[in-house]
Amino acid sequence: MVALVVAGLLLGTGCSSGTGSDDSSTLDVSAAASLKKTFTAIAEEFEKQHAGVDVRLSFDGSSTLANQIQQGAPADVFASADEKSMAKLGGLAVDPKIFATNTLVIVTARGNPLGVNSFADLAKPGVTAVVCQSAQPCGAATDVVEKNTGITIDAVSEEQSVSAVLTKVTAGQADAGVVYVTDARAAGDQVAMVTDPAFADVVNAYPIATVDGAEDGELGTQFVDLVLGESGQRILRDAGFGAP
Question: Is 157 labelled a binding residue?
Answer without folding.
Answer: no
